[in-house]
Amino acid sequence: MSRVYNFSAGPAVLPEEVLREAAEEMLDYNGTGMSVMEMSHRSKAFQEIIDTAEADLRDLMGIPEDYAVLFLQGGASQQFAMIPMNLMKNKSADYIVTGQWAKKASEEAKKYGKVNIVASSADKTFSYIPDVSDLPISEDADYVYICENNTIYGTKYQELPNTKGKLLVADVSSCFLSEPVDVTKYGVIYGGVQKNIGPAGTVIVIIRKDLITDDVLPLTPTMLKYKTHADAGSLYNTPPAYGIYICGKVFRWLKKQGGLEAMKAHNEKKAKLLYDYLDESKMFRGTVEPKDRSLMNVPFVTGDDELDAKFVKEAKAAGFENLKGHRSVGGMRASIYNAMPIQGVEALVAFMKKFEEENL
Ligand SMILES: *Cc1c(COP(=O)(O)O)cnc(C)c1O
Predict the structure, then answer these.
(1) How far apart are CA 28 and CA 38, in angstroms?
(2) Is the dihedral of CA 149, 154, 157, 158 positive or negative?
(3) Ligand 1, atom 3: nearest CA belongs to which residue?
(4) Which of this chain's residues are annotated to bind pyridoxal 5'-phosphate (predicted)?
(5) Tell me: the pLDDT tens digits for 194-223?
(6) Residue 188: which of 213, 167, 165 has the closest Cα?
(7) Residue 10 lies in a domain
(8) Ligand 1: which residue has its CA nearest to atom 7?
(9) Does residue 264 surpass a pLDDT of 80?
(10) What is the pLDDT of residue 289?
């Protein structure tokens, strides 16, 4: 067996230790004689899995008691509708558009109310985060929406926007658990887990409990009401049980690594290796404003499409997978999530140096 270095933006690399454990438990989870995949979600064994996962996540992120943790389905994209349906009491919301995911979310929200784009970085292909210190926040806005780490473009907010007292809602799909977070600054934090935590199919929503009400937009489906899931402990219907089980294992792994402070240090070290090289290279360069660089997604180009394609092809042959940039940006992108070992980034930089020498 040989494992590659997988730089995919998502679904993405998971800790090898977690995959091995899951493999070992595949046929017989903890003496139950069955796989977690085959298990009733109403069983004692599964209840323990979901309770432990929630407790470990609360511990890792320091989630206060007045926030609920929901394990839902539908991916991050389903939240684009659930958020307005549940939170647009005044039928108005402010969106900051820093990439395709924020744009998609804002377009979905338009179906349910008035959407004000209060800032955008579309003018420079989303290569920076706009100044968000003094935005024209709408008087009647129910919330201010951001995508905190822009997976496709490789930018991240270094400071949260000044929402002038309005609720902050954040999509953290691609920076989930990559560094410590102050949950109390948000009304809702959510993310699809397939970028940094687990298998696709599960989305985690952390929501202040006073926002979970029956006062939702008319015709909101039962399944799209936060209250439905909060009242049932995420077990209103069959949850994405196997996904939750793997997320739980990743939470344990993160705690063993030293928690989110340690993860941040590890991620900064990895990202610095790559950015430092991009800054000194005569062939490759990063595509975003240095001050807004993401620790998780690192897009770069040579400036020549043919050379980019040659690089991606040779990198693949050398065991570096999924380095092709998003179809909307081109070039390359290395996603270096929590589970990417530092050796992977070191090996990539060494490969890039060699490629530069051979092709310059
Ligand atoms: C991948 C991604 C999404 C979409 O996730 P799905 O689970 O496929 O719906 C949304 N937001 C961000 C920031 C992402 O990286």
Answers:
(1) 10
(2) positive
(3) 76
(4) 76-77, 101, 151, 171, 194, 237-238
(5) 999 999 999 999 999 999 999 999 999 999
(6) 167
(7) no
(8) 75
(9) yes
(10) 97
